[in-house]
Amino acid sequence: MNDMSAAIRLTSLAHGGGCGCKIAPGVLTEILKASPVRLPPKALLVGSDNNEDAAVYKLNDTQAIVATTDFFTPIVDDPFDFGRIAATNAISDIYAMGGTPIFALALLGMPINTLPLEVIAKITAGGESVCAEVGIPIAGGHSIDTVEPIYGLVALGIVHPDKVKRNNGAKAGDRLILGKPLGVGILSAALKQGKLSDEGYKRMIEYTTKLNRPGVDFADMAGVHALTDITGFGLAGHLLELCRGAKLRANIAWKDIPCIEQALDHVQAGIYTGASTRNWAGYGKEIDLAAGIPEWQKQMLTDPQTSGGLLVACSPETEAEVHAVFARHGFADARTIGSFAAGTPGITVTA
């Protein structure tokens, strides 16, 4: 097991970790039903409809603000790594809209009487290190004393109003390309059980701290019709959002889906998160699984990803260029996993 810098295990202070602590999709839908429907201002190009990754507000003919917030409880025990993962995850929502980050605000909730101040300082330093890598400042924020450790960012970016990439624009025939392999939630579950190897931890940090910079390039590509990032609802959940938005059916092949090798070992041994089970309960009725697909593969499809990969819907003519963009940014695991077709919104999974 990796050498933790904090005497207290951060994950022991939280009931869940990372994007796995999101409210279950079915429960969230019920909560939002009670929200009043108001006519948004014309300048609000993207609001709360279709569970978009961020809001977008038009400033003028060439500029729009992209705004998002994301925070969660610890997914790892190392405080610096926790801060890095949380910041990367929040900034990913800017990239998922095709935006360029410009600055951030920090959100900090910590059990002050439980965690040493130097541990908390390492969490915030981790977040600051990612923002420095992106080239943006943390310009302020807010902090409170909480029972569980919580950290994240309000991230803001900018994009041309005509180049915003939404999650509802897929077209029949579009190819589906996934930028990162699945399995982060499973690795986090293995870590919490004390069963994650040093190599598994290394892979987990590698993927959760890899910034989804290709999103900026995708903004300039007319053949990229829809874009999102895979987080707490898993690949299946976020793909369903694309299907519902475009009123199309997605056909994906299990054999083409990239997965982290160590996560495959753990899930086949019965290690996965409670969130993956809740995810399936929330949307499983919209997914057709081929006969013979085992339970562990279903758990992988619903595995909550923290700082997961971009999911791209693009024209067949643009597919090679999308792969070239991913390769240029070092995303060697990017794979075409399926395509969209006319039909009832939902997902068909073949072996």
Describe the model.
The chain has helices at 25-33, 79-96, 117-134, 184-192, 198-208, 214-218, 234-246, 261-268, 274-283, 295-302, 319-328, and strands at residues 44-46, 55-58, 64-72, 100-110, 138-145, 150-159, 175-178, 224-229, 249-253, 287-289, 310-314, 335-341, 346-350. The chain has 351 residues and is of the alpha+beta class. β2 (55-58) and β3 (64-72) form a beta hairpin. The chain is globular and about 55 Å long. The relative contact order is 0.18.
At the first level of CATH, the class of the largest domain is: Alpha Beta
CATH topology term of the largest domain: Phosphoribosyl-aminoimidazole Synthetase, Chain A, domain 2
Instruction: Please tell me the overall pLDDT.
Output: 92
In N-to-C order, the SSE pattern is: HEEEHEHEEEHHHEHEHHEHEHEE
**What general outline do the C-alpha atoms trace?**
globular
The description of the largest β-sheet is: 7 strands, mixed
CATH architecture of the largest domain: Alpha-Beta Complex
Count of discrete alpha- or pi-helical segments spanning 4 or more residues: 11
Derived structural class = alpha+beta
What is the CA-based Rg, rounded?
A: 19 Å
Low-confidence stretches: 1-6
What is the percent of helical residues?
25-40%
What is the domain tally? Answer: 2
Provide the β-strand percentage band.
15-25%
In CATH, the homologous superfamily of the largest domain goes by the name PurM-like C-terminal domain
Physical arrangement of strands within the biggest beta sheet: 8-11-7-12-9-13-10
Distance between the termini: 34 Å
How many beta-strand runs? 13
